[in-house]
Amino acid sequence: QVQLVESGGGLVQPGGSLRLSCSASGFTFSSYPMRWYRQAPGKERELVATIISAGGSTVYADSVKGRFTISSDNTKNTMYLQMNSLKPEDTALYYCRGGLYWGQGTQVTVSL
Question: Fewest beta carbons less than 10 Å away: which of 56, 81, 100, 108?
Fold first, then answer.
C-alpha cells in the first residue's frame, strides 16, 4: 500500500522558517518526479516545487523562488521543503505528490 505522509507544518510569524517533510512507503521514491503543492482557502491548488530524482533538477513557482528549497533523500524515501522568509500569503495546506499518489496535507499558517 502506497502512503505519502507530510509533516512539519505549523504556525509561524512572517519572516520565519519551516521545514516540511514527505515520507513515502510502498513507493519507489526515485521512480517519479516529486512535487509540493499548496492550496489556500478559496483558491486553486498551486504547484510550488518539483524535484527530478535523477540528477536532482528542481523547478519552483515564481512566488517561492529564492525562498523555498526542495530536496530529497532517496535512502530515506523522504522529500523536504525548506521554507524561509515566509509571508502571510504562503498560508495554505501543503501536499506532496509522487506519480498518481498524494499525501493528506500539512497546514502552514503564517501570521503574527
Answer: 100
